[in-house]
Structures
1.
Amino acid sequence: MMVLALSCILVLTMGGCVCVWWAARGGPRWTRAVSAATLAAGELARRASRYDRNPSGGDD
């Protein structure tokens, strides 16, 4: 079950990366929407990771 969940996450991530690449080259409107969602999710993950490493909230 865990392998299935991780496989789905991997496929979604790869699809998001393809949409970011395609939207940067002038793809259809739906690729721009998917790429915006992918970039926003990546930014949220990056911020969450930053806060996990530095619980005080300040930058080093």
2.
Amino acid sequence: MTATPKGPASYFPSIEKKYGRPISEWKDLIRSSPLTKHMELVTWLKTEHGLGHGHANALVAHTLAEDTGT
């Protein structure tokens, strides 16, 4: 039995379904952005890529946490 994702990752199935792109692509986009601050990245995903606030926030939080090892 697979554990249910918790935290930001719990949004990933609905993000993939709604926007039609795998999470790895969203993470690559975030990592390739010249922006580095959490809210700047959230705003960028919302305005440039049409994500909702919760989805953008979850992607940014998870990606930044992975990159900082927290």
3.
Amino acid sequence: MKRLIGFLCVCFILFIVYFDVTTGTLPKSSSSPTKEPSQPVHQTANKHKLQYVKKTMKPGDTLLSIIEQEEGTLKQPIESIVSDFQELNEGLKPEQMQIGKTYKIPIYK
């Protein structure tokens, strides 16, 4: 009887691993790459003409997660995204963002 229960537990664990690898347990983002931003798009007056949206930070938000929500995938290198964010927000580092405050998030088309 112990062997049967052990065998069933091993089968169950293998099924869980298989399901996690093939389907995944995290919800997929329903946004598509051609989705319009949820906020109005603004442009800066600098030479690069960066487009951005103003977003208020919520718990769990990061710079990369917001950009992925807006665009679906990251099309720019992370270093470029960080430097554009700092340029738009007067040198503020993404690690210093605070919940409830509004920041300019770069948008890439």
4.
Amino acid sequence: MTQNQPEGPGGPPGPEDRLSRLEAQVATLAEAVRALAHGLENVPSEDVPPEEAARGARLAHELLLSQGL
């Protein structure tokens, strides 16, 4: 039986490295969704400027771009 050891600098990332990267990506995605939802959470019947929704979308986009997603 072999153990899953991370390979050297030239080899593919090990399972722990991939899991850490995936966790960071999921956290970033959750933040982006939260920012987008915050921008869209107003009731449509209220008089809300459209800039608020655009601001949430822009923030979500910037979060994703900053993490290379």
